[in-house]
Design brief:
heterodimer; A: alpha+beta; Gyrase A, domain 2; four-stranded antiparallel sheet; B: four-stranded antiparallel sheet; elongated
Chain lengths: 532, 312
């Protein structure tokens, strides 16, 4: 137990020294580390949001909202498909549950109905597992004339997954435009997106930029109908953003959508000097807009953002150039934000915040300071206790504890793991339990010596018998920590990371470093008595 | 040079005889914890209940708490709890889950922000919506069960089944009592608290395994001694270590409790309780209980293959 070959000794010391080098940059500020020569390790620990402050926003795709909207467009598509020549007579077309249903009058037309509706099933490409693609909708043509297009479970799942991917892209573009923060945007589970923005004090602007659907549409206003009275089919009533809101009757099918925009910029209106958003349409968009405005001079059209009318100007003359501007009581910032949203594109579905945690930078700094103080006090107190109890061998235990802490930070740095406040608690608890390995060994050595063995034989036997116990005891703790890591979230995970790494480094130091130091001490002192 | 010793070298504490009152005590505390858990219930935090927590620092050093309370309670957000934490100007505001799903929570926090914008700085806001809180509670319970299962399997592989059952009972005892601690003290029970409970499982097993290792070794050495005396001997032999390790762990935990800041105080308090419960449980429950499972000196020698595995 006390004999070490030369290469073993060297490799143990190498691990410890490399650990020190990797952990070293964490003692310095970021700026200092930047100025070091290139061959020195520079990687630093990632601090959790609770330590450096920041926003944690968990969004979920609003499935029901998406399904309802999608089914409404499907109703329009079906209506259009049935209008093609030869016309197909139907009744009762509408949304029912998770699908759209109607009845065909002439049963002999059913094969033609199927042919027309099949393209609307919307194949969603290959599935994630590489199998055949699924359709967004199931088509069910009953022999009694009842036709139903409804969401299949697989279709909806696949669609939601696509929505999440698209949303992540859109959110990324929006935040890029903002330029000041560097958040991480990740998929979580099947229908969630996690946005983490470290160092951000006030999350409100980020939230308004990320969470807004920003679906822009242009509609013609039906001036003939009143919002309270009877309306034509295919029209909707939407409110304006004014206080109190003014209702407008609009044609449901949009003339243009945000997709038709080529660019949007915040500027000032040349006459009123108000902040406005000017936009430029794509070439197809410009052509459609030109045709529509030509046909509808002196009629108002509405600019709708997320189901709210932001303005409803009257078309004075055909707009052929493909550019225009949106005015609507903007402040400079809100005009700027809308321009960003329009450039980055709209979210394919509504996102709702299901969990939000914001930590101000001040609180984070306080937590770091408290964590540092507690770690130092804990380490000093435990070390003092060990020296009181074991004398010189207590110092060896203390060196082992310090090596342990350094190795925890080295492994965390290497893995790019995040240090959070519960993580600091994990390190401190490791300080308390890491000495356990030394206690087990020392107590065993004492016992063997009392039983009448020679000093060196006692040390040898002490290690031999204690190491098995140390392994058993620590593996159970490690299992608990690993389960915590895999099943836990947030603070549990932060704690589990340092705790698990701490247990692993404890096993390592007990089996190698502590043993090596005691062996060197024995070789140097040749003790004949054990004074523990 | 004589060093400082907490536990004298030769102790002969009759743990086996003490089980006449330690077992009923452990059982009583566990049952009381379960009863209290269902009758009173812990003070669940927003992680499991949903809702909003806001920590503010008022610009005024001695804010008028009464005025603040009536202002916040006038917002129509149901019951608003306002309390100071630490300094007088650090205030924690808790509001319950709002009716109307995720958007209602956002609206509520918006109201508070506008109401307090001029007089306070927002240090922390946490909103947990109804969907997530349910999941967090479910995942937490799963983590608890999985930890138990994984460790029981490990102990069963490494030791005889009697030890696996014993360590399981003792760990369950510690966990149940720690839940009881949360109910009695009404410390907030949140995700971090769950981490504390799960860590006490690990710590309690660590303690138990160390004692069991020694019992197994003693069993192999002295085949003629009565099992009760043998278990006593093993516990007494390990007492020095058990106490020293508990002390160092407590030193670390107490520094964390007093200097680590408000945020993790409830976590540390539970850990301190858990460590004390763990030492009690491993010494007074886990070891003596083995006698009921028919563990005898020869139950080890009959299974040489397990022994070989144990040495590996």
């Amino acid at each position: 137990m006390l004999h070490f070959t030369r290469w073993k000794m060297i490799s143990i010391l190498t691990v410890v020294i490399v650990g020190f080098l990797i952990a070293l940059p964490n003692l310095f500020s970021k700026e200092t580390v930047e100025s070091w020569p290139s061959w020195v390790p520079k990687r630093q620990l990632v601090l959790g949001l609770d330590l450096q402050g920041g926003a944690y926003l968990l969004y979920q795709v609003d499935k029901q909202d998406y399904v309802q909207k999608r089914l409404r467009t499907l109703v329009g598509d079906i209506r259009k498909a049935m209008l093609d020549e030869p016309r197909i007579g139907y009744s009762g077309l509408g949304v029912q549950g998770q699908g759209v249903q109607f009845r065909v009058r002439d049963l002999s037309q059913l094969p033609e109905v199927r042919k027309r509706l099949e393209p609307l099933q919307n194949p969603l490409g290959t599935s994630a597992l590489g199998g055949p693609g699924v359709n967004e909708f199931n088509l069910d043509v009953g022999s009694d004339g009842v036709v139903r297009m409804s969401y299949s479970e697989a279709g909806l799942d696949q669609r939601v997954r696509q929505i999440v991917d698209q949303s992540i892209e859109v959110i990324g573009r929006r935040i890029d435009q903002l330029g000041t923060v560097e958040p991480s945007i990740q998929r979580q589970g099947s229908d969630r997106i996690l946005v983490e923005a470290p160092g951000l004090g006030d999350p409100e602007r980020l939230k308004s930029l990320v969470g807004q659907t920003a679906q822009l549409t242009f509609h013609l206003v039906d001036t003939g109908a009143s919002p309270e009275g009877a309306r034509k089919p295919g029209t909707v009533v939407l409110n304006s953003t004014d206080t109190p809101p003014v209702p407008y009757v609009l044609e449901e099918a949009p003339l243009l959508t945000g997709e038709d925009l080529a660019d949007a910029q915040a500027t000032f209106d040349s006459r009123t000097n108000e902040p406005v958003v000017s936009f430029r349409l794509s070439s197809t968009g410009a052509r459609i807009f030109g045709e529509v405005t030509q046909k509808n001079v002196n009629r108002p059209f509405a600019i709708v953002l997320d189901d709210k009318v932001i303005s409803a100007p009257v078309i004075r003359e055909p707009i052929l150039g493909g550019s225009g501007q949106i005015s609507g009581n903007f402040s400079i910032q809100s005009a700027n934000d809308l321009a960003i949203l329009l450039r980055a594109g709209s979210l394919p579905a509504k996102l709702t915040i299901v969990e939000e945690r914001n930590i101000g930078p001040g609180l984070g700094a306080d937590s770091i300071a408290a964590g540092k103080l507690a770690s130092i006090i804990a380490t000093v107190a435990v070390c003092a206790f060990m020296v009181l109890t074991y004398g010189f061998l207590g110092w060896i235990a203390n060196i082992a504890v310090i090596v342990n802490i350094v190795l925890i930070f080295a492994v965390m740095t290497l893995l790019g793991a995040t240090l959070s406040l519960p993580g600091i608690a994990g390190v401190i608890i490791t300080v308390g339990t890491a000495v356990d390995a030394n206690v087990l060994i020392y107590e065993r050595i004492r016992e063997e010596f009392k039983a009448g063995r020679s000093a060196i034989a006692s040390i040898d036997a002490g290690f031999q018998k204690a190491l098995g116990t140390i392994l058993d005891a620590n593996v159970t703790t490690l299992i608990a920590a690993l389960v915590l890591f895999y099943l836990g979230s947030g603070p549990i995970r932060g704690f589990a990371v340092t705790h698990a790494i701490g247990v692993a480094t404890t096993i390592f130091t007990a089996f190698t470093f502590t043993r090596l130091m005691v062996a060197l001490w024995v070789r140097w002192q040749r003790p004949t008595k054990i004074t523990l | 040079m004589a060093h400082f010793r907490i536990v004298p070298d030769q102790t002969n504490i009759p743990f086996m005889r003490m089980r006449k009152w330690t077992f009923p005590l452990a059982a009583f505390l566990s049952i009381m914890s379960v009863v209290l858990f269902f009758a009173v219930g812990p003070n669940y935090g927003i992680d499991f209940l949903g809702g909003t927590v806001i920590e503010i620092q008022t610009k005024e050093e001695h804010p008028d708490m009464g005025a603040l309370r009536s202002k916040l309670n006038g917002l129509g957000l149901g019951d608003v709890q306002v309390q100071t934490i630490g300094a007088e100007d650090s205030i924690l505001i808790r509001i319950g889950q709002q009716d109307g799903g995720e958007e209602a929570q956002q609206a509520a926090i918006g109201k508070i922000r506008t109401a307090l914008a001029d007089e306070a700085e927002f240090r922390r806001t946490e909103i947990v919506g109804p969907r997530v809180s349910g999941e967090l509670a479910f995942n937490g319970s799963m983590a608890l069960l999985a930890t138990f299962a994984a460790i029981a399997v490990y102990v069963w592989f490494r030791f005889e089944w009697q030890f696996a059952v014993g360590s399981f009972i003792s760990a369950a005892n510690v966990v149940v009592m720690t839940f009881g601690f949360y109910v009695v003290t009404q410390h907030e029970f949140n995700l971090t608290s769950l981490a504390a409970v799960l860590t006490t499982i690990g710590y309690s097993l660590n303690d138990t395994v160390v004692v069991y290792d020694r019992i197994r070794e003693t069993l192999r050495k002295y085949k003629k001694i009565a099992i009760g005396d043998l278990i006593d001997r093993a516990i007494n032999d390990m007492l020095g270590r058990t106490v020293i390790t508990t002390v160092t762990t407590l030193i670390a935990l107490f520094s964390l409790y007093f200097f680590g800041g408000e945020v993790i105080q409830s976590f540390t308090a539970a850990m301190i309780f858990g460590v004390l419960a763990a030492i009690f449980s491993s010494v007074c429950v886990a070891a003596p209980i083995l006698i009921y499972f028919g563990l005898r000196p020869d139950s080890l020698t009959k299974k040489p293959q397990t022994e070989a595995a144990g040495k590996a």
